Amino acid sequence: MSYAVKEMFLTLQGEGIHAGRRAVFIRFAGCNLWSGREQDRTSAICRFCDTDFVGMDGPGGGRFPDGAALAETAARIWGDAPREERFAVLTGGEPMLQVDDGAVDALHAQGFTIAIESNGTIAAHPGIDWICISPKAGSEVVQRRGDELKLVWPQDGMDIAALEAWDFANFLVQPMDSDAREENLTSAIAFAMERPRWRLTLQTHKMLGLP
Ligand SMILES: C[S@@+](CC[C@H](N)C(=O)[O-])C[C@H]1O[C@@H](n2cnc3c(N)ncnc32)[C@H](O)[C@@H]1O
Ligand SMILES: Nc1nc2[nH]cc(C(=O)O)c2c(=O)[nH]1
Ligand code: SF4
Ligand SMILES: [Mg+2]
């Protein structure tokens, strides 16, 4: 199938266990928890999104006819750095609306280790090498195992004990970026102080001025 990609760019992973790692980000267009239109935000399931994922008009974005075209562009963006370190982060929008065998096999054929950032409402593709799930209150998460669970905090109506029963190797709490970011940071610090199983993660790319 073809893929609608908002943007594709080289940066450092800003969040989570792989923070600081060189990565090609592939931001797929569209999400199942919000249309991406501001007028729909207050009625959406996910209301705090910090990302423009509408359309295919960003840097490196476009319609890719098949996995080979997607992966060749990712490899070109990775450039001359060592091939054995190639690392791609599939995000969006919700990448699992589009990611399929064609994308995963072609990225692997180009030597990429593949990570995903997903809301977990659609099962992750089994070929993905690193699964990060970020649950959203009011949604049904079906992907309850993976490498990192990244809880954006605070979120009303989140059952933390239920999250802790899921099968993740790492439990991370990330302060919500909003007009209340300072209170949210204080709350996220308190969350991690009270629950030593959870680690604080910050959106370091925003501090560094990286995309
Ligand atoms: C834009 S989402 C795209 C991937 C997927 N739809 C998801 O929600 O996981 C990428 C990451 O940013 C997080 N995020 C989105 N808005 C945020 C905000 N305002 N503050 C902190 N993290 C946010 C999401 O929870 C997710 O972990
Ligand atoms: N540098 C950088 N790191 C990120 N980690 C997760 C991101 C995302 O939007 O999925 C993101 C992003 O947009 N930029
Ligand atoms: S699920 Fe992810 S991409 Fe969709 S609106 Fe929420 S944070 Fe944004
Ligand atoms: Mg982001």
What would you note in describing this structure?
It is a single chain. The chain is α/β, with parallel strands linked by helices and 211 residues long. The protein has a single domain (3-151), classed as TIM Barrel (Alpha-Beta Barrel). 21% of the residues lie in helices and 27% in strands. The protein has five helices and nine strands, in the order E-E-E-H-E-H-E-E-E-H-E-H-E-H. The chain has helices at residues 67-78, 101-109, 160-164, 181-194, 204-208; strands at residues 3-12, 22-28, 62-64, 87-91, 113-118, 130-133, 145-153, 167-175, 198-200. It has a nine-stranded mixed beta sheet with strand order 3-1-2-4-5-6-7-8-9. Helix 2 (101-109) links the parallel strand 4 (87-91) and strand 5. The longest helix is centred in the C-terminal third of the chain and has 14 residues, at 181-194. The chain is globular. 36% of the residues are buried. The mean pLDDT is 98.
Element order: H for helix, E for strand: EEEHEHEEEHEHEH
> How widely separated are the two ends?
28 Å
The CATH architecture term is: Alpha-Beta Barrel
Low-confidence stretches: none
Binding site for substrate: 12-14, 27, 91, 211
Binding site for Mg(2+): 51
Organism: Stakelama flava
Binding site for [4Fe-4S] cluster: 31, 46, 49
